[in-house]
Amino acid sequence: MTRPTRALVIKATSGAERPEAANQALTVAAAAVASGAEVSLWLTGEASWFAVPGRAAQFELAHAAPLDELLAVVLEGGQVTVCTQCAVRRSLEVEDLLPGVRIAGAPVFVEEVLAPDAQALVY
């Protein structure tokens, strides 16, 4: 397989309240990292909690890869971001998050999705 030429920006908007959507976002992000793509995963809304140590490990979905393992793949080979407003609403600071996770806002997201050859997906 050749290395993908487009960056992939994935926005996960669901947490435990929509487990299949949450798992699908992280599954696609991890698969893209494994394929060699440049990946930026944005955790927004209830998905923001997955960036807190131990929270992704608590997530369970039958017949799905463990969320904490998928997130580890993305953290190792891509960028993970929690949206600024989502972090503030949950009283989360960067110190509360897994190592390597950043907090950034809409201007950074817009810059990423409008980059030449970027592909954005929202789950």
UniProtKB/TrEMBL annotation:
Family matches, as Pfam families: DsrE
InterPro entries, per the entry: DsrEFH-like (IPR027396), Sulphur_relay_DsrE/F-like (IPR003787)
Gene3D superfamilies in UniProt: DsrEFH-like
Name assigned to this protein: DsrE family protein
Organism listed in the record: Cellulomonas chengniuliangii
Highest classification ranks of the organism: Bacteria, Bacillati, Actinomycetota, Actinomycetes, Micrococcales
